[in-house]
Amino acid sequence: MIDLRSDTVTRPTAAMKQAMFDADVGDDVWGEDPTVNRLEAMIADLLGKEAAVFACSGTQSNQIGVRVNCQPGDELLIHSTGHIGVFEGGGPAVLSGVTVRQLNGPKGMLSVDLLKDQPRVDDQHYCRTRLVCLENTTNIAGGYVYSLSQLQDVSEWARRTGLRMHLDGARFFNATVAAGYSPEDVADCFDTISICFSKGLGCPMGSVIVGTAADMRMARRVRKMLGGGLRQSGIVAAAAIYALENHVDRLQVDHDNAQTLARGLAEIDGIKASAEETESNLVFFEIDPSLGTAVQFAAAMKEKGVRVGPMGGQRVRAVTHLDVSADDITTALRAVRDCMACGFSDQQLTGSGPYSK
Ligand SMILES: *Cc1c(COP(=O)(O)O)cnc(C)c1O
Description:
Elements: E1 2-3, H1 14-21, H2 34-47, E2 51-55, H3 58-69, E3 74-79, H4 83-86, H5 91-96, E4 99-103, H6 112-115, E5 128-135, H7 148-161, E6 164-169, H8 172-179, H9 183-187, E7 192-196, E8 207-211, H10 213-225, H11 234-246, H12 251-266, E9 271-272, E10 282-287, H13 294-303, E11 306-307, E12 309-310, E13 315-319, H14 326-342
Parallel strand pairs: 1-11, 3-4, 3-5, 5-6, 6-7
Antiparallel strand pairs: 2-8, 7-8, 9-10, 10-13, 12-13
Helix pairs in contact: 1-11, 2-11, 3-10, 12-14
The structure holds pyridoxal-5'-phosphate (PLP).
């Protein structure tokens, strides 16, 4: 089975498992796990920040970020497609007492133009606008990559305006590899940054939040409160260290495969795809409604040994990652051509994930 539904489906390589097997461990809640400590120091150094805190998942590190930057009664501004507002179970409301204000704009991105009239005036009637959350790369908006100047513009405005900045960097290194900017330059634009190891970097689990030493002390407290204080978590931190050393540069391979896939899809009748709009490892395309729905298409593809992610209506997501080779892309394109030739409007798919409803 070629699984293009998500880059979360990657399985640890033999070398990564060996690194996990060999990890030195201790009790991380007591700060005594040498591997977790090494990972946190490595990532803080890489981003030019004072400290980092290892977390269980990207959802957890994002929600820690919201709690660290905000007080109950505050509000955060985010694009309407942003993960923190849509796919984290209402976490800001439940865990931080923070309301989410979603803004619309092109490519899942926020700009000073979109933001400049949004902060609420200081008046007892209003919640306090406190935080701007950006996503880079954007996920369901289309896998787009912010330029450094876009990030810097929003950041300078936010600082002038007294707002904090959080980056949902679930695919942080996809962005740095695609855009060619340094992790430190991106991190400079934000107070807190969340990065996932369980996506393109190929780890079984784990995320990190990065920021000032004071904010990371608070992050540690929030993590404990959320039940995310782990003990011998060096076992998984070792996978993250392995990934930072071995799986960052190779993200370019995923981006190249995504380009090949998008180009191939664009040539198939009944499919609307664009290599130009494909900026990272996420390929989005649309199925001609006369042929069936995205869910029906995904069901037919599954029969042919290729899994893709229906996103509702006609939209499909296909994600390249560590476990997808250039040959797999050729095979996947052949399966798509077969499906388009045979038709799929009679297909049914069960268990197709959160996006397809
Ligand atoms: C995957 C993802 C996350 C984290 O999700 P988890 O399921 O907690 O790993 C956060 N933000 C974005 C944009 C993501 O794609």
